[in-house]
Amino acid sequence: MPGWLQAGLIAVGVLVLTWLVLMLLAWRLPPGLAKDLAGFLPDCVTTARRLRRDPRVPRRARVAVLVAMLWVLSPIDLIPEFLPVIGPLDDVVVVALVLRYAARTVPREALFEAWPGNPDLLRRILGLGPVTPPGPGSS
């Protein structure tokens, strides 16, 4: 096996192993904001996949969702991914902006059905605020 191919396979193996370790660590996070943020991009990818297949979603929202998916999957980033904490920031900002744009044209039910994560996080992203339970005396 040529040396360049062996080095490439080792690099891919190390990358996949790193991803698996990070996924395991994210899975073990206690409930709260850190866990929500660790699952944000995977939740966005799942939401984008579901919205692209939903017939209630208008074409321009599907195109926006596709652009966001391509942005996240692109190896070219405004902020390099290897920088701790701020590395995925450009991806998060683009996805949040696209979700806000899509929320104007996509029925809310479809958007919340497609979101696999904490619905309160999606409400905050969309600028809706958390749902407050009705107080005593409200009907």
Automatic annotation (TrEMBL):
Keywords: Membrane, Transmembrane, Transmembrane helix
InterPro entries in alphabetical order: DUF1232 (IPR010652)
Recorded topology in the membrane: Multi-pass membrane protein
Domain DUF1232: 61-97
GO CC terms: endomembrane system
Subcellular compartments: Endomembrane system
TM ranges: 6-27
Pfam families: DUF1232
Name of the protein in its database record: DUF1232 domain-containing protein
Organism: Jiangella alba
